[in-house]
Request: fold
Amino acid sequence: MPRHEGQRPHPARSRLVALAAFCALSPMCTSIASARPIRTADHGVQGHGGGGSGQGAGTHESHGGNSGGGQGRWGGSSGQDGGSGQDGSGQGGSAQESHGGDSGRGNSGGGNSGASSGEGSYGHSGGGGDGHGKEGKGSGHDQGQEGGGVGDQGQGRAQGGEGGDRGQSSGGEPAGAPGESSRGRGHGDYGRGRNGQGSGEGSGQTGNGNGIPRARGRQSGSKTSSAGVSHTASNSAPRAAAALAVVAPPAPAATNGAAAVPAVTATPPAAPPAAPSAPSAHVPAGTSSHPQPASRARRARRHKGRSVGSHTAATTALPSVLVAAPLAAGAPTGAGSGTRQDASRDARHTGQASTPPPIVQTITKIVGVIPLAVWIAGGALLAIALALAAGSRLLAKRARRLERQRGELLADVGLLQGALMPAPPAGPGPVSASVAYRPADGPAAGGDFYDVFALEDGSLATIVGDVSGHGREALPHTALVRFTLRAYLEAGLSPREALRTAGAVLERQLDGALVSAVLATYQPRERTLVYACAGHPPPIVLGTRTLAPMGACSSPPLGTGLPTGTRQTVLALPGAAQVCFHTDGVTDARVGQDLYGSQRLAAALASLGPAASAPALLDRVAEQTDARPDDMAACLLSLQGGPAQPATLVQELELWGDETARERAERFLLACGLDLSASAALAGKACAQAERVGSVLIEARPAGPGVGAPSARIRRDEEPDIHASDTRRLATVGGAR
Amino acid sequence: MLKRSDTSASQASLRPFAIYKRELDERASVVSVEGELDLSTAPRLKWMLLDSLESEGAQVVADLSLVDFMDSTALGVLVGVQRKLAADARLAIVCTSEKVLQIFEFSGIDSAFAIFPTLEDALAHVRSQTAQAD
Reply:
């Protein structure tokens, strides 16, 4: 590459170089930066970036002689913030190369890379005389972006950098980067958000600058600029402000204070001038026209590429930088002299070594600012969250386990329930049976049981009972009583005999629990229903003849210690009939404050008609009641009609030879419709016989349709039971007591 | 469908449950019950009666004349108390309600108790029997 040096020996160039150098150096090498100490603090990272660029510039310059390192700055500028300084430098470098020609290269701003990316642009110089910067362009990444300025110089001029415009955007003010021409000018540009940065630089020849602006860029930019300025100016300027100043001494002041905005403003004016003269670039420094720079900057932006390089332009650029860079204040003075590639290298290294990625930095900063209290609070919240999470997990696990166990329990209960409440025998026949069970509304469930099964002689046996006490306490007794009763019926005992025997046998096992039950057998051939109750409501019989329940001398429940199984009813039913066995839970259900009662139950059954079933009946009861404090069980036998048969109704009472026998016999006979004298006579006779043989059975035929006058008699033991079928029953369990 | 008798018969069953004891002397006491004796209230009758029957030669009258309804649980309580009665203790029941008497009758345990229509009759019964026992 041709060097500008030869061509342009201007002081301006040298200045530029100086700027560039210092730019590069300033950040990095304090020493180099003659004058000032770097403000590391501010720039920090940025500084580095700047350095990088600077170097590039420097190189050129050195080579070129003049070209300035304006760029350097830029780079620098960008560098700072981003920490990307390095990148910045890189660019700078390239820029320079391009310059090779004469111009300074712009640096592209290396700045850009700074943080994000920037890229710089580079100006490149023009061929011989001018370089022109290429421009940079910045891509800004993060931040604003920067633009790279480029300038070319034609020779003299540097090109302007262009500003990173974008950068500005972020920053608010962009700096224009104007190319700078020879002296640097920088332009800077962009600042991204923070400071503006712009950088200007001039380079000897060309300048170009591009600024890359990054956020970081700004500071450095400014610094650089300042540096540049100073050089140009003569070195003195070390301040950040200086950057501006550099270009134009006056600027400095402005710069410092200036916010990004100001910078912008400044730029405009400057722009024009910048553009124009390439050569001027060198001069520029000297000229330091404030206004111009600004205008250039603008242009730079516009064009992006080229700026011209007047110093002024550079200056202008600076302003922007300044703006961006208030931070930069500390700016390094750059010593122009200082510029060396080496320096720049160092800068880079440093930058690299010391600066972590921007994101990391940002995070680090944010984290660093968090108060201890917040940390503690955060820790506490985290601990609480973890504790809650763990707790909820445990609860969920427990809930799942409990749910599973509950399911298993329900399954077990279902099996038990099924065992206690089997389905009735199916199949068409002269009699059909249906059963239903409805648990209580409250916690009192359990205790009811039923069974329907066929006997060997073709009879259908039915058991419905209720164990006092509820729930699991009642379950063992429920099963015991149900199967005991069933066994006696299976053995051939009549319902009354089965109850009597079971009462005697279960007394001890029930341990105080009371069990009410109703047992029934229905012989289809004879159409005879036999049932016996023990402390249990009698069945409701609906047919051609309505049977009024008779409570006199009812048998006590099982488990009372009293003899039971003393009463039995034999009923021959002509025509179709329905027989409903139920537990007291049905009749004790409430309608408001009233009991549902057997009359309402009979009405409900009648309303269901011939197709009635136990489930339908209980549903109807549930509809008609407000509260059902006890379990409800029902067993419904639907008896088909057939040829008319004489209706038969026989009430049986077994009398024991005890002190109450006579009184009971009289009550029973009176209830069956016998007159007082007949009752007393028969009662006396029965008692005498009972005392002699232990017990007697009184059969009474109440008055009724087709029966005539009520009658009663004492049945002799040798007589077969009226309900006995053709087949002789198997056993004679529990003989007379 | 509802029969008039059902409706009218149930008009009186609005009495809240109450139970209290009057001690007539060292041995005699009257346990009065009002309202319904069912699964929830029967236990109170049970403990009250057992408490009254603790003393030696207790003469206890259970006045159920103001009871509107008894279910099988209450019957079980009465049967259980009756069966635990000490040899020298006496228990009598006063019951005037036809409904309750019917419940006793259908349950078949009426023969197990000494049931009287008036408190005086019941007291005379327990005192005479105690006297005889003495």
Summary: The longest helix of chain A spans residues 372-420.
